Amino acid sequence: MLASCSNADFDIVIRNGTIVDGSGDEAYRKDIGIINDRIIKIGDLSNHSSKKTIDATNLIVSPGFIDSHTHAIRGIFDVPTAESSLLQGVTTLTDGNDGTSPYPIDEHYKKIEHTKISPNWAVFVGQGTIREEVMGLENRDPTDSELYKMEMLVKEAMEDGALGISTGLFYVPGSFSSTSEVVSLSKIAASYGGIYISHMREEAVNVLKSVNETINIGIEAKIPVQITHHKIIGKDNWGLSYETLKLVDNAIKKGVKVSIDQYPYTASQTSIRALIPQWAQAGGRISLLARIDDPKTRQIIIDEIIERILFDRGGGDPKNIFISKSSWNTSMEGKNLAELCIERNLEPSPYNAAILVFEIIKGGGATAVYHAINSDDVDRIMQHPMTSIASDGPMTIFGVGSPHPRTYGTFARVLGRYVRERNILSLEEAIRKMTSLPAHVLSISKRGLLREGYFADITIFDPETVIDKATFEDPHKYAVGINTVLVNGLIVVENGIHNGNRPGRVLRGPGYNL
Fold first, then answer.
1. Of 233, 406, 203, 238, nearest to 315 (Cα)?
2. Which end of the chain has less neighbouring CB within 10 Å, N or C?
3. Across-strand partners of 330?
């Protein structure tokens, strides 16, 4: 596929490919000429020479995909080549989501640059991280002095190059924050051109209230907002995406900048603590264990865990909750709570599953996969024009644990299953959702489109074979069909194989203080 010569017009020319440029416009046939890290010419380059030629006959040439919601900091320093992302065509990762981020931002960016990674990298500043820095895990409102300290830390993070501010209002300590506290911090991010991206307080029975809260934060703080990994959890709530998307549309009509990101699966993944009520987690692990051991609070916590198994993330049955990673007891990985109960000679009931959750928490915790989402809601949310594609995945070390397959398959899954097989999206629209839409929403400049003068982040794939291979039963499978990937003008994936190159750059946000 590659040819080379010296004393050429371009460093690389991509010939004979079908260009889907990221704008959503129809595909067209032209060549692309690259010098150093930039796209210099798009047109008929048949009379031009190049040091390397990529023959993209029968292949799609698109901008590199932007994964606008990851937790790749969990693994990126172990796997700086980021194969699970690059082999899906992803060239840019964002971290610092769900209210938890590295801190300080500048120190983190320097560590990324020193490590040298394959994809580009950007982060949000986590409101939960900032709150914990100032207040610990206390369940109360901040004092005026504490709020001022948090505002100054957000200011520093934005000047260090954070893309914006993220919240995890479902998680501790974000769940202890009032809307007004979040608005105050978001105003600081807004003053630097940042975005507010939120794991909302609720994605189940109170999802409509949570969407409204997110929109109102955007209005009050005068900041663009993104509903992150938007989904509807719990069987009794399936179909509420009709209403959540109406709320988004009505807000957009009123001039509020609202966007969404989503992964294409009917299961979520997060800590086993998602089954524990937030109030019980105040003060951290030691306080939680004390409440579990106290007879009065223990029963209250059990009742709330049962409620969440039946009507929330448990999807009505302990068998829908799988342990994906447990550092202290790897034998649990890949098994659901019902199976683990049976192993302990217990009936696989919600009550016994709750007792098992206590055992897991006391042992050291675990990450779990929760099957509680309906495919119709996934389809509907995906088709919304302001929905980007994002994995919400860590940078999994190959072969370790039993991770959610989204880490390996998100983008290839959309192209293979939702575009080619099911026609949920057109190819042009799917690629827009992976490229120019997240670039625009996150203020990432000169990326996300194939344009002259833009950085040469480029993904070349076979539209007939691209597909995800990772499953919940066998998650450590790389996607296939991604032929070539360039990051900043350097080839990283050749003929479907990562070549070890690590040309990724830190992409600082609009508030970066030069």
1. 233
2. C
3. none
pLDDT at 45: 97
What is the spatial distance between Cα 157 and Cα 38, in angstroms, rounded to a whole number? 29
pTM above 0.85, yes or no: yes
At 214, is the secondary structure helix, strand, or coil? helix
| CA distance to 154, 160, 166, per residue, from 189 (Å) | 7, 12, 10
The whole-number average pLDDT for the span 49-58 is: 97
Q: Which two tokens stand for residue 410?
A: 């998100």
CA distances 438 to 117, 340, 421, Å, are 21, 40, 24
Q: Which amino acid is at 99?
A: G
- What is the spatial order of strands in the sheet that 65-67 belongs to? 65-67, 90-95, 120-123
pLDDT tier at 513, thresholds 50, 70, 90: confident
pLDDT digits (tens, 9 = 90+) for 231-254: 999 999 999 999 999 999 999 999
Average pLDDT over residues 38-42: 98
What does the radius of gyration of the chain's CA atoms come to, in whole angstroms? 23
User: Within 13 Å and on the Cβ side, how many CA atoms surround 308?
Assistant: 21
Q: Rounded to whole angstroms, how far apart are CA atoms 303 and 297?
A: 10
Instruction: Tell me the C-alpha distance between 307 and 312, whole Å.
Output: 7
What is the total residue count of the chain?
514
Question: Nearest Cα to 318, choosing from 290, 339, 289, 301?
Answer: 339
Using DSSP bridges, classify how beta strands 65-67 and 90-95 pair: parallel, antiparallel or unpaired. parallel
CA distances from 481 to 89, 141, 258, 319, 497 (A): 10, 51, 33, 33, 11
pLDDT classification of 5: cutoffs 50, 70, 90: low
End-to-end CA, the chain:
41
Q: How far is CA 208 from CA 247, 248, 332, in A?
A: 8, 10, 35
3-state secondary structure of 487: strand
CA-closest candidate to residue 97, choices 509, 407, 390: 390
